[in-house]
Amino acid sequence: MTRKGQGDLLTLLLAAVATLLIEMALVERKFALFGGGFGQSQTLDTPAETVLFLLGAVGAHALLFGLFFLLLRRLHGREYDPLIFRFNLLFFGVAGFLVALTAKFELLSYFSDAVSFQLIRNLGGGSLFDAFLFVLNEGALMLIGLGGALILYGIVVVRLRRRGNRTLLPAGRSPLRWAVLALAVAMPVIAAQANGVPDARDGLRRMTAYGLVNRLLEQLTDFDRDGYSWYSAQIDRHPFDASRHPLALDIPGNGIDEDGFGGDFVFTGADPATPAPKLPAKRKHLVVIVLESTRADALTQRVNGRPVAPNLAALARAGSSFPHAYSHVGFTTASLKSLFSGALDPRVGDPSLFSDLKANGYRIGVFSGQPESFGDISAVVGMRKAADIFVDAETLAHERAFGFAAKGSLLVDETKILAEFDRRMGDPGPWAQPTFVYFNFQSPHFPYHHPGMPDMLGVDPLPRGDISAANARGVQQTYWNAVAYADSQIGAVVARLKALGAWDDTVLMVTGDHGEALFENGFLGHGHVIEPAQTHIPFVLNVPGLSSDRPLGLSGMRSILLQALGGAPAPDNDAPVFLHIGAVDTPAAIGIVEPGGVFTTLALGTEEMWFSDSGRRARYGDLNGADKARADRLVNEWARQRWMRHLATREAARNAP
């Protein structure tokens, strides 16, 4: 190899190594592959995972830059200027790759817990537009920088061409061609190995070059074009039958097991519907308080000898509590839709608590520390349409605790919310009319502290930058302090209702939208793992005589509230509480909670089952006896939920104008 050829390859090596190191640093910063962080449930914590990740990341990156080198060499022709070639290699290779990384990571710049676009949609309330709002200013700066870089490129190329340093490329094949060919052969083998190691697989798919390679392999091996292949996260075991693949809708009674779990599905019927309520002539007021990210164990938690939630505990003692209440999905938007609609996956126009009470002559007030348009919550449950008074984090833009633009990060302190309640509903006169008030208290949301929040428990709240697994105890105390602050505001609501003379005629309900893992199992956040910390929530009413030990999901609370207001008793429902991560039709994991708070879960990407009472973990295909029957109860409940959704979709299409 000539000295010029060696210089070209050295430039290639420099470009590839520099961009790989930069991307790995960004990936670690954003996704915490090695260190863990908020919302990160999958880390590279074993030597085998780390080695496999490095093989895939380095191999794919080298393949991408090797192909780019060969393409650029061909475009320059056999007679070329080495300096211009190397400059183009660095400019379009390094700068081009960095522009792609900038676009990719600026979109996620405030989502240190993001692991996929599906998660961004969840955290952004289903809207990618809201995610883009995070980076509006940064995007403009990127465009300015790109324009400047192109001008600089033109100036440099013009000056290099004036030097006229052209040379003839020697005949013969470059050894780089054989290296690229070897990598092209090796990558399918590495990808196949990585596919069986979930943490390595998911880490690699966050790397740009590997993502491109794996996507190509998926397309090449998706023989029946059903969206699943030999290289998808869930391997297609029927690659030439488009009706059978992972997550295929299981058609009941056709003798075919479309999704590969539980055999042919037998549909046992839909959940009993909650009828439109007919409330008594003398109607009680209803106040619903939703505590963001609040776990069920807040009722009994103590920090430094102080109870975290004395007001919530007092309500539970005097009224009714449901010790086994759960969030179905672990995300705010879906949880609130289920709470108010009584359905797992409601649609715009479906019955809801807001339409129920509006039809019964209620005055309705909404006072929320979050934007209720977030994820179309308000539209789906008819919130703003029904409300006589509507106050949320969008209408109180000047009162926000943080300066972020996207809906997922808006937060208004509870004292500001209650001040608006005093101003708009603090006159006792209108309370002669039955009244429904919904409060949403956001203080327990990550980062668990905001300016002006007092120290309730004798702790030193951590600033956002210090939240890490190394400070787990401090993170937990900071979180519980936020819950304690929200609980103090429950007391403030009760005091106001008493001052208005409305307390004795009020049904007060307090619940959470989901829980929060606090590094107990190495994870911080919610909505990623089906476990008690992330799904078990409080559900307390000030009305005695309604307590139940049976498992209850958020979708079951509407009927209980209507019963507490004097409507028909809540329908009996012995079905387990169904839980899922991701969409019902395409979840990453599913679970059920049965009597006693017993969890059974299935991670669909690995087919690993978890039985909470025994702690046992095993692959679905290896089960037998009682464990197999229990696993199939979970699979059948998932199939039932999907089939009900399918029937509802078909009915809606049939009735559409």
Helix content: 40-55%
Largest sheet: 7 strands, mixed
Low-confidence stretches: 107-125, 131-139
Which structural class is indicated by helix and strand composition?
alpha/beta
Proportion of residues in extended strands: 5-15%
| Backbone shape | globular
Radius of gyration: 28 Å
Strand line-up of the largest beta sheet:
6-15-11-3-10-8-9
Termini Cα gap: 72 Å
Number of strands: 21
Q: Helix count?
A: 19
Please state the average pLDDT score: 86
Structure write-up:
By secondary structure, the chain is of the alpha/beta class. The termini are far apart. About 4% of the residues have low confidence.
Topology record:
Elements: H1 3-31, H2 47-76, E1 79-80, H3 82-107, H4 117-123, H5 128-133, H6 136-163, E2 167-168, H7 175-195, H8 198-204, H9 208-221, E3 285-291, E4 302-303, E5 306-307, H10 310-318, E6 320-321, E7 325-326, H11 332-341, H12 353-359, E8 363-368, H13 377-381, H14 383-386, E9 389-391, H15 414-425, E10 435-441, H16 472-499, E11 506-512, E12 517-518, E13 524-525, H17 532-535, E14 536-537, E15 539-541, E16 552-553, H18 557-564, E17 577-582, E18 587-594, E19 598-603, E20 608-611, E21 616-619, H19 625-655
Parallel strand pairs: 3-10, 3-11, 7-16, 8-9, 8-10
Antiparallel strand pairs: 1-2, 4-5, 6-15, 7-14, 11-15, 12-13, 17-18, 18-19, 19-20, 20-21
Helix pairs in contact: 1-2, 1-3, 2-3, 2-7, 2-8, 2-9, 3-6, 15-16
